[in-house]
Structures are given as structure tokens and as C-alpha cells.
Amino acid sequence: MRNTTAFKEAVAQTLTELARRGVTFAPATVEDTIEKNMIMVAERLGIQVRSAWRYFDTAAMAEGLARSRSSYEESSSEKGVGQAPMPPIDNPELALVLAGVPDSLAQSGGDLYAVIINVAVNAWMAGHIHGEDGCTGCDGSRGPAGHDWEARMRTITELQPNITKWFDRDVWTAAINDAGYVVTRR
């Protein structure tokens, strides 16, 4: 279905309609939504998917996606859910995670998936350490700093004395390049 002209036009038109409404979605999200809806229409009507395109309404699809986004944002703000706060720019643990990316890229042979998993696990652990200092299931698993977040920050700062350099995009990019890789957009 995704290789058809009808599908590609539907995605492009829906993204345009969303842009008119001031709503941004990743193209892959729009593609997935359109595909699911077209399959559902075909199944409910007992017709082939290619015949279901006559029922596709770009404006209705865009409106539904926009309402969905708005509803999510409203329900999230009511419950106090929002974007996680960024740590301060000079946070030693964040610097350590950033500093590990070029090494991880070199060690994995350029496997970006492995690098992302490494960063995600380290970020998750950082949140776990900061947010759940009293986690009884982690006793003895954090080394000499234990569950004391401040002590952990001091230990990391000692290991990585120049933490601010990792918040400089040029330094980070140079480290990636030194590892033998270049990140470019296709």
C-alpha cells in the first residue's frame, strides 16, 4: 500500500493540512495512521484497500490527528505531565553520557542503534539515580557513592574534570569525527 501513488499523495496532503492547522507530526506517524485507517475501512466495508481510497478525506484525517494531539496535550497538562526538565548545562552525569557517545560509536563499529541504546540506558539510570535515591532494590549497585546523588555528582566530576566541553557542539562533533564517523542528514 505504501508504494502506491494514492498513499503518497494522501500523506503529502495530510501533512499540508496539518501544517495549515499549525500542528506538526512526523511523516512516519501520519503514514502509519493512514495505513491503519485504510485497512480498517476496507475490512469494515468488505472491500479491497485500493477501493477504500474513494472514502479517504484529507481534511477529516488532518482534523482527527489535530484533535488527538490537542486532547493529549490537554489531558497531560491537567495531570501535571509535561516535558521532563532538562538538567543544568553543567550537570556532570549528562556530560558523562554525552562524552560516551563517540567511544560507543567507535566500539560498536558505527552501529547507531547500539549507541542510542547505550545513551538511553545511561540516561534512564541517571534518572533512576536522581529520582529514586531510596531504591531498596539497588542497594550496593552504585559503587562508593551509593544512593547519594550529590556524592555521585562529585565522583563523576572527579572522573571527568572538564565536563563543560561536552556541551559545546563543536567539541562533540570533533570527537565523533575523531572516532572516524560523520553524522550527516540524507
Please describe the structure with a list of short key phrases separated by commas or semicolons:
single chain, 186 residues, mainly alpha
How much helicity do the residues have? 55-70%
The main sheet comes to: none
Number of strands: 0
Percent strand equals: under 5%
Radius of gyration: 23 Å
Structure, described:
The protein is mostly helical. It contains eight helices and no strands. The chain has helices at residues 5-20, 27-45, 49-52, 58-78, 92-107, 112-131, 149-159, 169-178. Helix 1 crosses helix 2 and helix 1 crosses helix 4.
Could you give a short description of this structure?
The chain has 186 residues and is mainly alpha-helical. Helix content is 63%, strand content 0%.
Question: Topology of this structure?
Answer:
Blueprint: H1 5-20, H2 27-45, H3 49-52, H4 58-78, H5 92-107, H6 112-131, H7 149-159, H8 169-178
Helix pairs in contact: 1-2, 1-4, 5-6, 5-8
